[in-house]
Amino acid sequence: KAGVTQTPRYLIKTRGQQVTLSCSPISGHRSVSWYQQTPGQGLQFLFEYFSETQRNKGNFPGRFSGRQFSNSRSEMNVSTLELGDSALYLCASSWDRAASYEQYFGPGTRLTVT
Amino acid sequence: GENVEQHPSTLSVQEGDSAVIKCTYSDSASNYFPWYKQELGKGPQLIIDIRSNVGEKKDQRIAVTLNKTAKHFSLHITETQPEDSAVYFCAAKDSNYQLIWGAGTKLIIKP
Hints:
By secondary structure, chain A is mostly beta strands. Helices cover 0% and strands 53% of the residues of chain A. Chain B is mainly beta. The chains are: A mainly beta (114), B mainly beta (111). Chain A binds chain B through residues 4, 42-45, 48, 55-56, 58, 90, 92, 97-100, 102-108, and chain B through 32, 34, 36, 41-46, 49, 89, 93-94, 96-104.
């Protein structure tokens, strides 16, 4: 069974630009969650999608948004990038609600904002 | 809302010794507590989890204990090996069905 894939793996953007990250979950998984990981803040929950609906949202500004498609693939978008958005963005999929079932993480997308 | 505190932030143990990482949580309604291991350059991976109807769970060299009264749970690794070196995260499910994560513990196994 293929694991969670994330594209691209590395990205360099300039302040003010926007970026879209993509995540393909494990086949059959219906839930996709996104996390931001930084050395100082650990794992910060961004949002969870299930059947194309946002189920949960973390404490991030509206510049961070996401969506899920009918095939469970998900994208997250960050608009008006700031230097502080530099981080590793992790996507995780699970069979059902992420808070109750094992999450399978992808390798992450390393975003650098200059 | 739920708050999860994890200690220590760094733990260095001799190979073959045991390692213990502790987490405390604040939401008494929390009922699911997973532990994830993150190796360098990889995403976190579930190593063990426990639900609130169980006090202890073991899987070979790894065990997790849960004290609901004190609202804390711990990860125990026995007979540590070099491949145990990684960052370990605890988490707790809050009443809003959201996983709240600890800050992580960097475990270093000294040869």
